[in-house]
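Troubleshooting: if your tokenizer reports a length mismatch, compare your output against this known-good record of 309 residues.
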Amino acid sequence: MSRKVSARIPASTTNLGPGFDVLGLALKLYSTVTLETTGSSSEVVVSGVDVDKIPSTPEHIAFQAVQSVFQRSGVQQPKGLKLSIANGIPAIRGLGGSGTAILGGLLTANVLCGNPFSYSELLNFATAMEGHPDNVAASLYGGMVISVQEGEHIHTIQLECDPTLHVVLAIPEFTLSTQKARNILPKTVDFADAIYNISRSSLLVACIATGKLEMLSVAMKDKLHQPYRSTLIPGFDDVVDAATDAGAVSIALSGAGPTIAAYCLNNMDAVGNRMRDVFKRHNIPCKIQVIGADLEGAKVWSNGDESPK
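Known-good structure output:
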């Protein structure tokens, strides 16, 4: 049995406009979770980005994920476990930070327990904890992942993305909880709006599968959640207009927000600068990051290895 295991998990941007709770894209932005036996009391140590927003106690969701693996596997949990999280993902900004933490706990504990569970099973566990599969599926497998939930089982298909597609993230300094962003959504939707989103999300998957990225400008439009959630983000419409004018192919909320993701084939710096300037006019500081899609997903290594293979 391994005594020290680490996992590097990519962030994710989800929904991608119309694919609400279904579509996710892994990003080259990472957190690393390390689980080791100590023989003493259990502890959680958090370092990196936004540590003031992340609990450093066994109530952390990653540690809960660790405990769930031991319980499900029937392996006795060691007396002392140290869970270290090197966080590289802005917290509560719509970039899948909670999903990466859950996966980090599940993946590392699974190795400590002797790998009793497949990745498919771990995805089912992660979805049960997260509440929806889009973030965790993308972060686990990499690329763009389409997820369908049937009972307690998640069906997925992974698509690789054209490397010319870049994502410009405008990450505001304020946070927005997923619960608040869900509470603002209507309880029912118009039939025509449902058809609108089905057509766009289908086109979006086809765009990625065929490399016809120029059609993302049509494929990423949405009527189910962004018209409501955008009201929680000052300057949203102005930021979208500015990014489009600067050359972005398409723009969408990242997950529940408040991060806004602009999808570009070129002019990434100009797009990012314009987005930052518009947020500034609305008195909102933001950080700009230009990144590509992660195509490898989560990586796990143990003991003497110092980095993922």
